[in-house]
Amino acid sequence: MQTRMDGRGSKEEGEGMMPEARKNRRRVNITGVLPRPLGVLLLLVPLCAPSSVEAQSRDRTPRAVVTGRVLDQGNGDPIAGVDIGVEGVGPLAITDENGEFTISPFLAGSHVVWARRIGYEERSDSLAVTAGTLLHITMELSTEPIELDELVVVVRSRVLDRRGFYERERQGYGASFLNPEEIRRRNPAAVTDLLRNVPGLQVIYGGIYGAHVVVSQRVTFREGDIGCRPTIWVDGARSTMFSFDEMRVEEIEGVEVYTGATAPGKYSDICGTIAIWTKVPIR
């Protein structure tokens, strides 16, 4: 039998093979495919290895869990809103309405645990924590009385506020300020009665124009005078009235008395200044 040496020769040879030979040939082809999955597995192993190492490293960190409750030493009631922390670390938890807290994880070792809340004395305790343990602690706090200033409510005059009265009062200027409350407290029958007890002023009674007010100081411009007549301002305008009693007390909202040249700006006078602010401004 002659063998044909062309492209179809291999086919004919295949067709001429015994069944046993063809069986062996298929076995060789299957065996040649098996190594490919092994290559994929080798690539996956390095990708998974780092995370596994990190997890093992974290597991080696000595840790524990600390729970607790904070109570009032006086009545035994739970205290909410208490800051729980570790010295050198800071606050780590805050108690709930039942006075309970949880710190997880808590590093093992020796620590100083503190508890703080307004109205109570701060408490600090040493705590030895063993890795893997669950600790429950109970802390009692004693009250710390704190004396607070009384709440002061001041009703201000809008008229005086617009005129800068309260700001000048705050700054001082070495003056006396009579606000509506002070005027009511003094309950004067006349304006000169209101000014009679102001430091640095003196009320002179008598004369054709009635009582008048002077500043008790050494500066005088006429021989025989016992003091200087202060400049009078009403609602920001200079007044020429001789006696304060030309006004009624009911008209006045506030008074500023400067017994020297300490009044601000245009109001300053060496003999002093008395500025009157009315409830219904004239200007």
Topology:
Layout: H1 9-16, H2 19-33, H3 35-59, E1 63-72, E2 83-86, E3 90-94, E4 100-107, E5 109-116, E6 123-129, E7 134-141, H4 158-162, H5 165-171, E8 176-178, H6 180-186, H7 191-195, E9 201-204, E10 212-215, E11 231-234, E12 237-238, E13 252-258, E14 273-278
Parallel strand pairs: 1-7, 11-14
Antiparallel strand pairs: 1-4, 2-3, 2-5, 5-6, 8-13, 9-10, 11-12, 13-14
Radius of gyration, Cα only, in angstroms?
A: 49 Å
Unreliable stretches, pLDDT < 50, 5 or more residues?
Answer: 1-58
Helix content: 25-40%
Major sheet description: 5 strands, mixed
The DSSP helix count reads: 7
Q: Average pLDDT across residues?
A: 77
- Give, in spatial order, the strands making up the sheet with the most strands: 8-13-14-11-12
Strand percent estimate: 25-35%
- What is the overall shape? rod-shaped
Number of beta-strand segments: 14
Secondary-structure-derived class: alpha+beta
- Gap from first CA to last CA: 141 Å
- What sequence of helices (H) and strands (E) makes up the elements? HHHEEEEEEEHHEHHEEEEEE
